[in-house]
Amino acid sequence: MSAESSAFRTYVRFRPLNANDGEASAFDYTIDNTETKRKITISADGPRKRTWKSGASFCDVFQPTASNNDVFNSVVAPTLPLVMEGATCNFFAYGHSGSGKTHTIIGYHNDEEKELGLCLAAARELFQALEGINSDKDPDHQGNNDKLGVAVRIYEVRGKFAYDLLNKGTQCHVREGPDGRTHVRGETEMLEGGKVRVRPIVAIPCWSFAEMRHTVLSGLASRQTGSSSIHDESSRTHAVVELEVVNKTLLALREAVIERESELVPVGKRATDVYLEENKKRIIKTADGQVTINPAVHIDQERIDEAEAEKTKYQGRLEAAENAVRDYSQAYPHPSLGGKFVFVDLAGSEYLDRGTAALPTGPKQTPQERQQGRQINTDLFTLKEVIRARASNQARTPFRGSPLTLILRHHFLAEGKGQSAMILTASPSQTQFAASMNTLKYGDLVGAASSE
């Protein structure tokens, strides 16, 4: 994979048949290598013989014998130099429930080096790369506060909310601010002096791979599962794991921004209250019940101006804190500061062809689980449209189409010289042919758009 290209890349990973497949046999698939991409043709036997053929959409196809390490070396490892240059690289796992997404991104056997999930394998490589920088003799970044580490954020997106898995599953609201940026904020904290603090998703700094492994696995242990249309222990949320290169100074500067925001809230509220109070004095009701302005009453403009001046002062303090973060990041002697890996273990796509008796009927779902399934499919459809819109340079990218894409907007826009990729996980079982075909169709649309 060329580290120069910024196109969205798609891969396919077939898992082996397992105990959940029962006595089912594998369907047939063939791979046709073009000059730069691969085509897949799949065909199933049984009550309805079906065949489907993709376009030249896939960068690689991993056979059932491939390990997580094989996938990492092909998909993620080549992007490490980009992250070390400060870029953001995004990786998605898409597929139906039980197809191997979580095994690929998170990993089930994280005590085995070859089976580390992609997020932990990336963390391991990041720490190895940072070791050389931290041992550099350059005195400009030898202080303890300037030592580079990796901060992790882990949250799941469920419905219209995000849930911070490193902060006791705190429900976080997803809002689009007047600045056009997406803000994911937790519960409001009332502080002394009228200050109001609303914290973003918690970032836990780690200074060794062992510490990172413990933090990631502890956070992901509380991820929600439930019944899907395929089986009864499916991930019903989109799990997002962010790994960012940070140091203590950068984290302290970001904390100062949160503090300045909390100071601004009561001052801004007072300015609004003063304005409303003064203007309310002029409002009167006429004899016929109409509301009008009394020209004989004058507002205290000096009071309004004083409150606005105070608000402007605190806005300036906030802006100065934000500029300090930016200036420090730009002046830091190594470009890796702020570089980021983002891994998204998407919830299982909801698809089941009930048109043949050869396919399972799936576990019974509650009405709430069915609603979750509809929201998941909306999220996945919108994600596909976002990827296609960006690949074809459309004037409008539909980030607002779902909470998931609204949250991920920052990562897409921060990508810059980074890369994004999707790993399509599929089961080769005859009983899941329709679901696997649906996964590959989704990836074919994404990959074809990205190749244009």
From TrEMBL:
Keywords, comma-separated and alphabetical: ATP-binding, Coiled coil, Microtubule, Motor protein, Nucleotide-binding
SUPFAM superfamilies in the cross-refs: P-loop containing nucleoside triphosphate hydrolases (SSF52540)
Matches recorded under SMART domains: KISc
Gene Ontology cellular-component terms listed: kinesin complex; microtubule
Superkingdom per UniProt: Eukaryota
Binding-site residues for ATP, renumbered to this chain: 95-102
GO BP annotation list: microtubule-based movement
Location of the Kinesin motor domain: 7-449
Pfam families cross-referenced by the UniProt entry: Kinesin (PF00225)
Coiled coil stretches, renumbered: 304-331
Molecular functions (GO terms): ATP binding; ATP hydrolysis activity; microtubule binding; microtubule motor activity
InterPro entries, per the entry: Kinesin-like_fam, Kinesin_motor_CS, Kinesin_motor_dom, Kinesin_motor_dom_sf, P-loop_NTPase
Similarity comment text for this entry: Belongs to the TRAFAC class myosin-kinesin ATPase superfamily. Kinesin family.
Protein name: Kinesin-like protein
Organism, as annotated: Westerdykella ornata
